[in-house]
């Protein structure tokens, strides 16, 4: 088993609720959507860069 599945198995619904409550208190309701948009944009950019890298490697092999 990998470490992530072990950690996720130890986190219950009460712990997730507590984490959500703490994040909401720290950042506020208006800041969270902005943070998620930034996170989504970062993930999209990372996927695009890794796809471009794969395309470059395929072209080099030809």
UniProtKB/TrEMBL annotation:
It is found in: Cell membrane. GO terms for cellular component: TAT protein transport complex. It comes from the Bacteria. One of its GO terms (molecular function) is protein transmembrane transporter activity. Forms a complex with TatC. Part of the twin-arginine translocation (Tat) system that transports large folded proteins containing a characteristic twin-arginine motif in their signal peptide across membranes. TatA could form the protein-conducting channel of the Tat system. NCBIfam families: tatAE (TIGR01411). Belongs to the TatA/E family. This is Sec-independent protein translocase protein TatA. It comes from Dokdonia donghaensis DSW-1. The gene is tatA.
